[in-house]
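User: I need a structural model of RNA polymerase sigma-54 factor from Candidatus Propionivibrio dominans for a docking pre-check later this week. Nothing fancy, just the predicted structure tokens so I can convert them on my end. Input:
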Amino acid sequence: MKPSLQLKLSQHLALTPQLQQSIRLLQLSTLELEQELEKYLQENPLLEREEVEYAPQQTGVSEADSADTEKFEPDAATPPASSADDESWLGEESSYSSSPGSFDDDDNDYQDVQAATTSLREHLSRQLGLMSIPGRDQTLVQCLIDALDDDGYLTQSLEDLAETLPPELEIELEELQIALNHLQCFDPTGVGARNAQECLALQLETRPADDTQTLALKIVRQHIDLLAARDFVKLKKLCECDDEQLREAQFLIRSLNPRPGAKYAALEARYITPDVVVRKIRGVWTVNINSDAFPRLRINSLYAQILTRQRGSGLAGQLQEARWLIKNVQQRFDTILRVAQSIVDRQRQFFDHGEVAMRPLVLREIADLLGLHESTISRVTTQKYMATPRGIFELKYFFGSHVATEAGGACSATAIRALIKQLIGAEDQKKPLSDSQLSEILGQQGIVVARRTIAKYREALSIPPVKLRKTI
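Assistant: Understood. Predicted structure tokens for RNA polymerase sigma-54 factor:
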């Protein structure tokens, strides 16, 4: 077969570098966006961040002050006049601050967590230094301290621990047991336990001896499984006690700390800077871009002037890249704002009445409304957060499956979970509601939910089954 030349026409979609950058910026979280912008700022001398004094602002793009300078920043705006319908839940400022304490709402999705300044091992080692025991015993206690996990438990057996020590020390198991006895006298009480049962028993042993303490100690040492299963009938029989005695012992056990070392564990602070802020202004739920999440970028005026005088300076490519970035960042926030406002418009009952009023919503509905692709909506709603009077929520939170109602409508799964939580919260703890009973109650309200679905939603809410919710 002879080789030949042929012309073939075809169509295909090519992603330009600008489009690729736009898609990438859209799917980044606020923190990831800041990290990405810092990289661009370091690599491109024509791009710079404009530092401006804080003022109540709304989103917008200011016009360039000159032909050589392009800015991207929120325009200053006059705060809306107060009225009876204006719920100024953010106080006098029109934007949300990501610093701790900005919200008084208890349902915040984030909180300022202060890491422990003293670790568990440091706390225990200090106590060890104050003890008058032989040096060999001190060394063994320190070995046990180093083997503890973050909750204060000794997860290794003494036999396994002895094998890890140098053979020339000739450590006997009895010596390790003595060292463990020393450690279990340290603060916090319960540290050095091998399991939760021993941890609770160590704490009970330090309590004043009375009938309740004796009964609680017996339950923990011998019948902890029955207590976990809430088999109160069998517990009363085995412990030879009545309802009141068992109730007091149970209360005492529940007051103990099964994780004595947890308060010394260093916790990583988790912060969320919302991308948008929702407020009710004159009776209408309105979305604004959060100025704290809004980067202010511009073209460096000095380099821009050089470029206008020296066309061959080699900065033309970087100027174009800087303009692309400014435009794509602007487009990112414009898209987030449009999507967030559409979500709020459809879930306004949620903002008025809470989770029980959440309506079913799918990505396709917002995509069709805004003329965007469903994948774009998915990118916008992932790791983007909304600050509201009810707390801070990821945009994806407002989407979910639905359950059909007898009237032919649909009920959001979020609303059903909220109803289940309400019903269980108001139940008689001596006669808690079973999953079947919950299904029947919802059915009486026109919401058809199978018992298995109730169980799935209940487990998602971390609510134990009926047997474990029952009290004596």
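Before docking, keep this in mind: The mean pLDDT is 79.
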